[in-house]
Structures
1.
Amino acid sequence: MRKLGGVGLALLLSACVGGVEPPRGVQAPVGRDPGVSGPAEPVRVHPMRDTGASPNIRGIQSPARMVGAVPFLPSPVTPPLQPATAAEAGVIAGPAVSGLPIDDAQAQAAFAAFVTSCPSLVRRTDTSGLTRGSDWQPACTAASSTQRRDARAFFAQWFETAQIGDGKAFATGYYEPEIAGSLERRDGYAPIYGRPSDLIDVDLGAFSTALKGKKIRGRVDRSNLVPYYDRTAIEQGALSGNAPILAWARDPVELFFLQIQGSGRIRLPDGEILRVGYATQNGRDYTGIGALMKSRGLLAPGQTSMQGIVAWLHAHPAEGQAIMRENKSFVFFRELDGAPLGALGLPVTGQVSAAADVKFVPLGAPVFLSLDRQDATGLWIAQDTGGAIKGSNRFDTFWGAGPAAESTAGGMAGRGTAYLLLPIGTVARLNQANGARYGGPSAQP
């Protein structure tokens, strides 16, 4: 679901689904607003994640500070202030996978998602600098003949943990919303647009090797390539028939949040459901409105969750429209035949899939999050990306659809430690190749 990123949606508004460029999160997928937190109602704790298990960590030689369920490992080296990739941030060998508090149900769900991601892991270029496609082949081959019931043993046998940089994780949440809409235009309804015919994607790497990996979007104005229309211009009719209208949303605020999530369901008047997913985005930068509203004193205590922000926008329609328009980013959708898709083009799974920055996490890799939120602590598979999900140890967890998913995602802002699960031997290879740039046996203090 290419998401924009979601503060836990709460931060969302400062911020799976899926894409490397701004947005998608099932997209929000959405850059979060640090400092905006707290659900409007009690957060549901999923039984699978609320295990109450105590960690049994072995093999830790250096002093460790406990964060969540597993230890945070002090880095023996000082990484760059703003590392561009995981390789630059530095890698420290973590605890044994067998010592992580992963229960059978959690391992089995993650195993199924990992198997789905294997073809991409083997084929894709890992921009994090951590792995090569061939590194994943032994585990993926073994997975094809492994029974799902043996998932915990599988992860313990084929993977080691690695802490990237300081390992300090921040996790938000996103979900698949359901909003009311119509296939016919109605008074007060807002259009849900498909990709415009005049939107152009430009790969700058085709013009200069120095710009490899960089892309922009725009439109042609006479002989010039110019930025594409922003949110205000689009809402005021700038598309002029250049984009198909998939449906009409009854509530513009709900449509705004649908764009943040990156995919969702449109409930039609006859009860039928139209599923839409991220198609592309207008190329404009994403601005989280939650941080803006908080800094301006618009949100009272208890209003800083997604639910509280929505309530304020509904209560102040004119001011709310102006604030939403400060986010110039605009998402275009496409109709989906099935479940929401992540950045790999594969279905994302609630309470299993997560969005991450591909410069710090191989897309498709498992990651163990040890957080101050028990419902989000556990094993996730990085199958999505988000425009606001940037940097090391930054994750956006996907919670599925429905009221419980909305409640949990809307208040998700977990902090703790992240451990990537990488093919055994990866950390040693990086140590050998990079020496003191990495933590681990060969690094010098």
2.
Amino acid sequence: MATELARRTIIFVPFPGQGHVIPMLRLARILVDRGDISATVAVPDFIHRHMGQHSVPGVAFVSIPSGVQDDGDQPPGPPSFLHSLEHYMPAQLEAMLMAPHGTRAGRVSCLVIDLLASWAIPVAARCGLPVVGFWPAMLASYRTVAAIPELMDKGLISESDFNCNKDQNIADLDILPAKLNLRFQDLPWLISNSAVSQKSRLAFWLQIANRAKSLSYILVNSIPSEGGDSDKYDPPQGQEILPIGPVLLNDDSTKATAVWQTDQTCIDWLDQHSVGSVIYVSFGSWAAPMEPEKISGFAHGLEASGQPFLWALKNHPSWRAGLPDGYMEKVAGRGKIVSWAPQDDILKHEAVGCYITHCGWNSALEAVRHGVRMICYPINSDHFVNCAYMVNMLEIGILLVSSDSSDVKDCIERVIKGNEGRHLQQMVNKMRETITVGEAMCVAKRNLSLFMERMKSN
């Protein structure tokens, strides 16, 4: 049996964003360590070109032709690759799976597919291969997506019209706890001011919800009992949802694997500052550019706070247009701005006292792992759901209501100097314990072991 399993390969298909590729690499590495299998991560060529500089023990990388060109050290934007994911790459992946020894790793046992890369699910079906789903965020955000067909059945939304009041609290829909105080407009598929964009977002998420119904297992990069009753989602009959987030978070084998080249001078700069004094600012690798006036507000607020700050801000006109003239020279020494930051190493540095974040789920978990309080400024996608949990349920961050310089300055002072900040630190420390050595970690390990046992028995 062991010899047979040794010839098996699991193909991992992530969505082409750094916040999706990294947790899937961690999952691949953990499964290799736990079973006699090999792992191959299939990524679009524009990701593979950058992954070539890295290696993950026991994990191979293959490139899927996409027909999309990247922009040097910047990832391509969604419009340029979303069409490719549905209309170009499926045939490329199918050819790879059907070719004899196409993976160079032996017989394909199954595919683990990021649900945002749901285009690969029908490909696997055509090839007669089983599929395991992977959701790289909170289970709560998956619930909001899985609920779309039900909301359509109730007549609240349709593929061409939204009959709901976007300011309406979603508590009466029994999707997520009322304490979150979430509105319709905070749901991932409604975050846009453009009706055309909203319709395309809804179509994207509806497609994911419908394709995911066929899966027997979905592994979730979430925390067991993440808050309230969010983990009581009732999946379709025959489907199991297994939260394994703490296990992925505590895997260090891939922490140095970043898709885009990071600026390692950040750590030397942090070494020059006192414990808990630095504000780290990052809005992620995937979020769309913010308007120049918002960047300007953050710039002035950070300067007015009087605290040293390290700001990961993409070196692109679409992001940096809002920086005041001569700003980087003016704040030199007290402020440092880089294009890509080694985030995990930054968050664990003792000089960091607060993190201004877009509320991407991976970023939130990394901050908790290293005991860093947060100021929450959600931008799009699942950020608003994550933010509601972080602020109203888990109490590990405070909400930044706007990018006005006075609001930025006020939030920094509340976290660094006030009683509110001390409470946040207590709650972060409590959550840190449960996801590193506590109950959540134990449940996650059991879920992963259960999945491995069932996969081997098939």
